[in-house]
Amino acid sequence: MQKKIITVFTLLLLLLMACSNPDTEQSGQNLTKKDIELDEVDAGHSYPLTGEAASAPVSNRMVGVMINNHPAARPQSGLSQADLVFEILAEGQTTRFLALFHSQTPEVVGPVRSARPYYFQLANSYNALYIYHGAANFIEDMLKAGAADHLNGAYYDDDGHLFKRESFRVAPHNSYLQFNSVAEVAAAQGYDIEASYEPLHFLAEDELDDIEGETVSEVELFYGQESVRYVYDVSSETYFRYNDQQQTVELSDQTPIQLNNVFIIETEHQIVDDAGRREVDLTSGGNAYLLQKGMIQKIQWENSDGRIVPIRNGEQVGLIPGQTWINVIPTDPGLSSVTEIE
Question: How far apart are CA 118 and CA 120, in angstroms?
């Protein structure tokens, strides 16, 4: 699902340039979306997590939000506009999401849940502002000590500006981030709201038809008893996501989550306390699957300067421009639990 952001200024400028030249007057009157997109590409600006064209230099800081994935929290809000989403186990057999927003700004994101170290470490490694709602005392102490730039919804609970408690769900599944207030509140806390980023490695247009792997139309994996399923849609060349047979969509309008890359990595998980909290190894690398354009490849993953990237024969594998979901699963049972359906 390719998304292009075109400013009114850019569009007017293109129209005026075309109309001012008699030789191009006709083409100016028939200016197409393709013409505008080519102009954007020529400008050389793109979003680092999606590889998609931007109409101007990108300077806003990434925002990472802890999103609830308990069955009582589905469907969520904002996930369809996240550039990159990590799905990792919290306690028990239910996952939570760290959704990184950069190229798009949803109005509402949530429900938002509490912090965990491996999530805020990921957010920090991507230089994203980390947003969550609540934390155990020792985790909050780590964040206050500088582990990551952060905003804790517990301090803004239902203020109606940064967070709002919705009545159609019950706590703790009803805390929603009012995204448009993030920059203002973050700046007031002294955090940088602008940043520059190195882009991830993306495939060029002439490489998109040369993706390696085996043809697979559907892949299913399990977090305990909960299944996650990705189904390839040939018409859009994207993956639809299902959680326990229910399609992952937007709460407000049922917009489906459509992904260009699905990256499934296995790594060590350890339960570290009586509450069932985990430590998750996101540094050592290991085995992985990459789903792209209806193909699956068995490759490796590495932590490259804090970012989780696909590797084959020691080289980074290019991503398809667009949105990516990274599923982190325990090595036991690991990739052997992933079922491929042709």
Answer: 6
Element (H, E) at 36: helix 33-43
Q: Write the burial class of residue 115 (CB in 10 Å: 0-12 exposed, 13-18 middle, 19+ buried).
A: buried
The confidence score (pLDDT) of residue 43 equals 54
DSSP at 200? P
Q: Is 183 left (phi over 0), alpha (psi -120 to 50) or beta?
A: alpha
Q: Quote the CA–CA distance of 167 and 165 in Å, as a whole number.
A: 7
CA–CA separation, 323 and 59 (whole Å):
19
Report pTM.
0.87
Tens digit of each residue's pLDDT (9 = 90 or more) over 98-114: 999 999 999 999 999 99
- Of 215, 315, 203, the closest CA to residue 261 belongs to 203
Instruction: Look up residue 76 and give its two tokens.
Output: 């969520």
Give the mean pLDDT of 19-45. 42
Structural domains of the chain ordered from first start: 8-43 (no CATH), 62-188 (3.50.90.10), 205-341 (3.50.90.10)
